[in-house]
Structures are given as C-alpha cells and as structure tokens.
Design a protein that fits this description.
The protein folds into two domains: about 1-40, no CATH class; about 40-210, no CATH class. Helix content is about 60%, strand content about 15%. Strand 1 (about 5-10) and strand 2 (about 15) form a beta hairpin. The longest helix has 30 residues, at about 95-120. A three-stranded antiparallel beta sheet has the order 6-5-7. By secondary structure, it is of the alpha+beta class.
C-alpha cells in the first residue's frame, strides 16, 4: 500500500498532501498561499547543462585576471585568490578569508556538488551519497556570493579610476557570465522533483533507476 505523498509548507509548516500540477503551474499552500513547488520542464537536463557552463566560466574566471591596473608604466594583474592573499598580507586576514570562501570555495562547492548530483540523476543513477550531497549544496548555496564580490570590484574600480588606468580582464567577464548562469540554473532547478527522485530511490532502487 502506497504512503500518501506529503509536503510541509516552507512558510507556515502546514503538512498537506502533494498534488500533481501541469507543466509550468505551481502548487500553493492552502493556509498561507506560499508556493510549495513548480513543475518545470526538463529540470534536471537543463540545470545540468547550465552547471556545466558555470564550471567553464568559473575556471576561466580564476585562470585569467579579473582586472589589470597600470600606474606610471607599471602594470599589475589581480585575480580572486591573489586579492584574498593580499588582504591577508595587509592585516585583513578575516576579510581575506571571507573573500576566499564566498568568492571561490562556496561557488566551487555549489558547482561541483550540483554536477555530482545532477549527472547521476540524468543517467538514471541514484548513489547513496546524493541525499547528504544535495542537503550540503542547498545549505552552502546562500554563501556563494560571487555577485557581492563583483560589486565590490566595481566599486573599487570606480574609486581607482582617477589614480590608475584600469583595464577589465577576461576573468571579470567570465565572473559576470558565471553570475547569470548560476542564477539561471537556480531558477531552472526544481528541488521538489530532485527530492522526489531521491525518495523513490530510497524506497525502491529498481524503480528509481528505471
């Protein structure tokens, strides 16, 4: 006998039965009206493709300078990890650590973790690590702050414009593309469908891999 499919509202915690919704439609809470989940088209395939693109942009952004500055004929390049290290050298260790984790470690965790989850699902596989991995990625996602880092870079460039010749690097454009791609991937992913697949895998592995 199948158990009823239940879901708790993210806003008011009301436990209610899940219903099937048409493509593009959303299920809402019967008490507070908050959106419970939305049926998105090809959510796993589309998000996988976007995360692969994000991985490419992330590598480019960290392999090339974010910005180059020329002062009195001397030119210097700035990269993400170099910026964090220079903050440490100047005594701002805490700020440097925050920059390193929010602009490098957590975005990397979000991209690699998402691909480690989505690719097996795309192939019809459900290894046991998927459930804790998906929880970890969802918890780390708010700490991925590439857009905040890039906003800080833009503010710094405006302040330095009258002191030096500032040249945006390939890394900057790659990070802008990364911000757009990650936002697009977040909107394309349906966590509800992912959790449903993982629950089916725990209850009936043969059905999940079918």
């Amino acid at each position: 006998m199948n158990r009823p499919r239940l879901i708790a509202c993210h806003e008011c915690d009301l436990l209610q039965q899940q219903v099937d919704v048409a493509l593009g439609d959303s299920a809402v809470c019967s008490r507070c009206g908050a959106t419970l989940y939305t049926h998105r088209r090809d959510t796993v395939s589309r998000t996988t493709a976007l995360m692969l693109a994000a991985a490419v942009f992330f590598v480019i952004g960290n392999a090339f300078p974010v910005v180059s500055m020329e002062i009195q004929g001397q030119r210097s390049n700035a990269m993400v990890w170099e910026g964090a290290w220079r903050l440490h050298q100047e005594g701002e260790t805490l700020v440097g650590v925050l920059v390193f984790f929010t602009a490098f470690v957590f975005p990397l965790l979000q991209i690699v973790g998402s691909l480690a989850i989505l690719i097996p699902l795309r192939l019809g596989l459900t290894p046991r690590y998927l459930v804790p991995a998906f929880r970890t990625v969802e918890e780390a996602k708010p700490w991925s702050m590439v857009e905040v880092f890039m906003l800080g870079v833009l503010v710094s460039l405006v302040k330095l414009a009258h002191m030096a010749t500032v040249i945006p690097g390939i890394g900057m454009w790659a990070f802008f593309a990364l911000i757009v791609t990650l936002a697009w991937a977040s909107s394309a992913l349906d966590p509800h469908e992912v959790w449903e697949r993982l629950e089916i895998a725990e209850e009936d592995p043969t059905e999940a891999s079918a």
